[in-house]
Structures are given as C-alpha cells and as structure tokens.
C-alpha cells in the first residue's frame, strides 16, 4: 500500500459476499466521506485502501479491540497524500497488494448547472481554462466526491454538495456519478 496508514472503521453489512458488495461499498463510501468531512473543506486528494478487516486483524492482532470484522467487513486505510496536479498520472503509478480488496478516493470538485456544463463541452477548453471557467461561474457549487471500487468491479459514489446561506448541504449517492473516476480506480487493480 502506498505509504503510511491511518485506520478508520466502517459500519456495514456483516459479510463482504458478492451479493451484498454494492451495499457494503456504499456504506464504506459514506463512511469515508464522513471521515474526510471531519477535517472540513479545502483538502487535497485523499486515497484509501479498502482491506478486509478479518485479514487486517490476522496480520495485526494488536488491533483486535479497535476493529470488529462482523460490524465492519472492510477497513479503509488512508494512504499518503496524492499530488493535486495530475490525478490520472498519480493513479497510473499505483499497484495494490493482493490483500487490498478495493480503494476509495475523496476529492473536492466544482459542480456546475447542466447548461454551464454543456457550454464547457461545446467550447472544448483545455484543463486549465475549464477549471478557470468553473471557478468563475456564478452558479458553481463546491462539493466533495468520494468514489470507491472493489476488485470485482463494484463501484459506489457519494457527492457531498457544500451548502451556503441560500441552500443546505446535500448528499447524493449513485454508483455512476463519476464513471471516468471509478474506471480509473479499477485500473489500479489490473496487472
């Protein structure tokens, strides 16, 4: 796993079997978002390895009092900070050991209304110009996106839209909120 780790447990279904993988992964993605939220906004990219809790306890029995594989079948382990510059390049360099069942990535993004996104696509702007356009748009919303995947291809996404004086925080969940990102995360598990 890339770098030092911070352990946080998740509450989820008791068994990480294939039939409940989507439910389990949604719970893990929500828990990662809640964990990241405790540090507030304006954070960099954060990557987590998702390790079966039972295997983690077998390797590190001193964690027995802190982790419960029945209550939390997967344990997210925070990895070293990723560079903000080029996420695609950073992900290309990641190779997970077999003990890692999946991963989750938390990143802050700007969400634009549909008509602004259409204009952005139509203008075919480069990355820097697109970021400047989004940052200057009067209807932009800051958000935190957590995308999580398992080796079996299961994906989950949580989008936490930051509230303001006119609207409260909102949380949206759907496995296809960020298909390019979940596909990129799945690529980190390919040989």
From TrEMBL:
Polar residues bias (residue ranges): 1-10
Ranges where the record places region Disordered: 1-20
Chain intervals with Low complexity compositional bias: 11-20
Descriptive protein name: Uncharacterized protein
Source organism: Umezawaea tangerina
């Amino acid at each position: 796993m890339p770098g030092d780790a911070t352990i946080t447990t998740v509450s989820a279904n008791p068994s990480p079997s294939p039939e409940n993988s989507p439910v389990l992964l949604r719970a893990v993605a929500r828990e990662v978002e809640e964990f990241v939220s405790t540090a507030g906004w304006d954070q960099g990219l954060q990557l987590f390895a998702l390790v079966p809790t039972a295997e983690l306890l077998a390797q590190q029995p001193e964690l027995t009092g802190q982790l419960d594989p029945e209550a939390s079948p997967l344990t997210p382990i925070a990895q070293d900070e990723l560079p903000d510059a080029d996420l695609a390049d950073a992900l290309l360099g990641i190779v997970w050991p077999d003990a890692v069942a999946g991963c989750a990535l938390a990143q802050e993004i700007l969400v634009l209304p549909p008509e602004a996104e259409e204009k952005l696509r139509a203008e075919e702007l480069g990355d820097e110009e697109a970021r400047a356009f989004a940052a200057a748009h009067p209807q932009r919303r800051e958000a935190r996106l957590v995308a999580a995947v398992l080796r079996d291809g299961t994906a989950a996404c949580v989008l936490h839209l930051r509230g303001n004086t006119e609207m409260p925080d909102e949380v949206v969940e759907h496995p296809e909120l960020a298909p390019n990102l979940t596909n990129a995360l799945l690529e980190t598990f390919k040989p």
